[in-house]
């Protein structure tokens, strides 16, 4: 699905299929990690008033979720898992307080070793899904045409596009956040991959039968 698609029903359907797409990937622990990231972590962070923050363990689980849902890069997990607890707490507190100034919030988080703009975006999305979407490969391709430039500058362009799309879709009556838009784009992209893979398998099977 392309970002310019204006059919709200298609967006709602893609979003509603997100959980089943997660399950269909059949990756170890992804279902439980996704439940932690999408359902548990936001509440945990917000319960820490007046100074919301994340811990090193939570950042490590978030990184496991990000790498399992996307591309596995074990060194990043090693980096964040060894971060000092107070350093993570301080950086995340400053980042959350910086919102809605996304540029400053990302900068506060990327001082942490192993945390680039994409991981920082996942942290912000867990706290403020109505402001900052996760910078996933699939959504980047749909919104910007590529997923190779993981920079703050590129993320800010990405945010603008997903915020605008969320506003457009919400005008139809159903509340969409930028994070909803990201998950719908991801869900649609995963479906397309499965369809392409299935078609390839079918063609290969037919060729074998002809032999």
Features of this protein?
70% helix, 211 residues, 11 helices, single chain, mainly alpha
Strand content: under 5%
Q: Which overall shape is indicated by the principal axes computed on the Cα atoms?
A: globular
Discrete helix count? 11
What is the element string, with H for helices and E for strands? HHHHHHHHHHH
Low-confidence stretches: none
Mean pLDDT: 92
Total domain units: 1
Structural class: mainly alpha
Number of strands: 0
Q: What does the largest sheet look like?
A: none
Rg on CA atoms, Å: 18 Å
Please estimate the helix content.
over 70%
Distance between the termini: 37 Å
Q: Mind explaining what this structure looks like?
A:
The chain is mostly helical. It contains 11 helices and no strands. The model has no long low-confidence stretch (mean pLDDT 92). The chain has one domain (8-199). The protein is 70% helix and 0% strand. α3 runs antiparallel to α4 (56-69) and α10 (152-170) crosses α11. It comes from Mikania micrantha. This is HhH-GPD domain-containing protein.
How do you describe this structure in short?
This is HhH-GPD domain-containing protein. Helix content is 70%, strand content 0%.
Q: Secondary structure elements and their pairing?
A:
Layout: H1 8-16, H2 18-24, H3 30-46, H4 56-69, H5 74-81, H6 85-98, H7 102-109, H8 117-127, H9 137-144, H10 152-170, H11 178-210
Helix pairs in contact: 1-11, 3-4, 4-5, 6-7, 7-8, 9-11, 10-11
């Amino acid at each position: 699905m392309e970002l310019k698609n204006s059919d709200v029903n298609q967006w709602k359907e893609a979003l509603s299929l997100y959980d089943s797409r997660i399950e269909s990937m059949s990756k170890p622990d992804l279902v439980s990690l996704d439940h932690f990231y999408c359902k548990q972590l936001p509440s945990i962070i917000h319960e820490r008033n007046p100074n919301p923050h994340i811990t090193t363990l939570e950042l490590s689980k978030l990184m496991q979720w990000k790498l399992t849902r996307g591309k596995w890069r074990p060194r990043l997990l090693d980096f964040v898992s060894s971060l000092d607890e107070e350093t993570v707490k301080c950086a995340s507190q400053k980042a959350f307080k910086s919102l809605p100034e996304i540029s400053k919030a990302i900068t506060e988080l990327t001082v942490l070793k192993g945390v680039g703009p994409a991981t920082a975006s996942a942290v912000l999305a867990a706290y403020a899904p109505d402001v900052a979407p996760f910078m996933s490969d699939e959504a980047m391709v749909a919104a910007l045409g590529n997923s190779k430039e993981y920079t703050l500058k590129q993320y800010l362009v990405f945010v603008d596009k997903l915020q605008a799309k969320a506003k457009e879709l919400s005008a139809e009556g159903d509340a969409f956040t930028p994070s909803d838009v990201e998950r719908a784009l991801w869900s649609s992209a995963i479906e397309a991959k499965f369809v392409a893979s299935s078609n390839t398998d079918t063609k290969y099977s037919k060729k074998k039968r002809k032999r």
